[in-house]
Amino acid sequence: MTVAIAALLAALALMMLPGRVGAVRRLRRLHDSGRAEPPRSAAGTAADPLGVATALDLLAACLRAGLPTAAAAAAVAIEAPEPLASVLRRASDLLALGADAATAWEQAAAGTTDDSVVGLARTARRSARSGTGLATAVAELAERRRGELEDAAAACAERAGVLIGGPLGLCFLPAFLCLGIIPVVIGLAGRVLEGGLL
């Protein structure tokens, strides 16, 4: 009797595991929508800082694989972060309609202030005019973006190390004075006063 109850409780616990529920939900969404939805971040969380670099790497890989620029831009725009995604979509649409590559990228990036997006449009225009390979230049843009993010992270870490020195000094300086300096001064003062030096 107790074995049957234990087995029933174990089966119930296995059915209630969070991983199983999440997997069932994802499978239902996949079945209902026809394609998997990307995981959504909670409201107020920052976007992935490496999302632009990853999208640029993906664009470079698509171009190296032989996809036309319009098809590669359309494929990457699906998962790219927002300023880059809209520019890739516009450029893809203009290129698919037969626009000149330099004109398409210039019009697609018009009004955008994001450095990575402006750099991509400039590189694509330069590649269209000179005939150089776009994949290598886009890969270099992704590497530069990663380097900028690494430099920013290192600067933040160094700044945090400097800023933490103030509170630590305020905490440890009184303790050092009370436990290290004052007993030594009191001990020396006692010896001086007992010895009759003053």
UniProtKB/TrEMBL annotation:
Per the record, membrane topology reads:
Multi-pass membrane protein
Listed under GO cellular component are: plasma membrane
Q: Where in the cell is it found?
A: Cell membrane
Q: Name one Pfam family in it.
A: T2SSF
Question: Transmembrane segments in this chain: where?
Answer: 172-193
Record-given protein name: Type II secretion system F family protein
Every copy of the Type II secretion system protein GspF domain together lies at 56-179
Keywords in alphabetical order = Cell membrane, Membrane, Transmembrane, Transmembrane helix
